[in-house]
Amino acid sequence: MVDRYLEDGIIEGRLDDDAYEQNFGDAYPPLDKHEALVAADRCYFCYDAPCVTACPTAIDIPKFIRQISTGNVDGSARTIFEQNILGGMCARVCPTETLCEQACVRETAEGKPVQIGLLQRHATDHAMRNDRQYFARAEDTGKSIAVVGAGPAGLACAHRLAMKGHKVVLHDANPKAGGLNEYGIATYKSVDQFAQHEVDYVTAIGGIEIVNDSRLGEQLSIDGLLEQHDAVFLGIGLGGVNALGVDGDGDDAVASAVDFIADLRQSDTFAKVPVGRRVLVIGGGMTAIDVATQARLLGAQEVTIAYRRGRENMNASHVEQNQSSSKGVNIRHWMMPVEVTKTGSGALEVKMEFTELSGGKLKGTGKFQTIEVDQLFTAIGQTLASGDAIGSIAVEGGRISVNDELRTSNSSVWAGGDCVAAGEDLTVTAVAQGRDAAESIHAALTA
What we know:
globular, FAD/NAD(P)-binding domain, five-stranded parallel sheet, alpha/beta, Fumarate Reductase Iron-sulfur Protein, Chain B, domain 2, 19 strands, 34% helix, single chain
């Protein structure tokens, strides 16, 4: 182990190369052929399967598992991709423990569900590894659609539109396509550049042009896109980060958990990513879990997550919370920050107030504790960052308002993913919305 502390308490190169490789290896190794057959054999192949209802993309789970059990892995992958063209990434990052696997009859009966996520990965990895392409473009319709945002929603929308024979120009503000899958998830959940491999797999259908470093509000405008295209789909995510909004002179020293995760995913060497000896993360969702766990894996000595409510109120699943705790992350509940102050040594003193529920409302108790840390991250939610860039399109609760067909208040513009007011902030939900919006766009353009 190599100890190298900078003056401000930030660590660089704290671990040796082998430790980094082990810490950031594949969190959920894939099943081999035999393991997949054994796992598939546990499925009851329910006729009215609750796992299908629990899946936002409505994959026919009993069918794809039966196909694995009979050796038809290609057929299994096709069944998955028909509903979810990003089934490979969803198999890695979906909270299956609260979706399909929680609904599994085996979970109800035995407390041990069928390993649906790993089985899905087994089939989709086989297809991508062997470059199996199951879908082809229809005859060119002469229609063109601009898709803004090359994340899960945008990629799913683009692929389905290409299948229908439309031309798609896929714009993204970042240097790489992939959105959340490329920049926003824990490194150990998606290794070996999988996000980029998936982008290549999705766009291999043809008819999709990707334009990077192309941002709505800068290089792009809604009106400009509609002058060039027959329709627009917005899958722009939530680029803004909620401010901590506390008292003190240290508020400007608070770092964004989202930015930290993105920097870590794009770093060519883990040792180059600086991390504090003592790290505090404010938040209770998956982003908080991901940044805290990765800070610990980078070599931070003490990592704490502080959440203003109880464990059962955290958006992060119990499985993810437990895994983070197993890595040495301390999760503390019922406390919130009220003041951040810089110390003479460059550290931060975070004054925390204990909280409680009173009459169903959260309030401070008037009791405090001060925690001194070297690095403070916020993971308290994101906001729509486009502002005036979306023009007169209606917004609801800080997100784009859409109808049941994902159509916005502008009849030529559709939207999906985290930027819309409908659905949960999950990769699989974004994929479902992108796919469904594409079907709605196709119906509107061919009516």
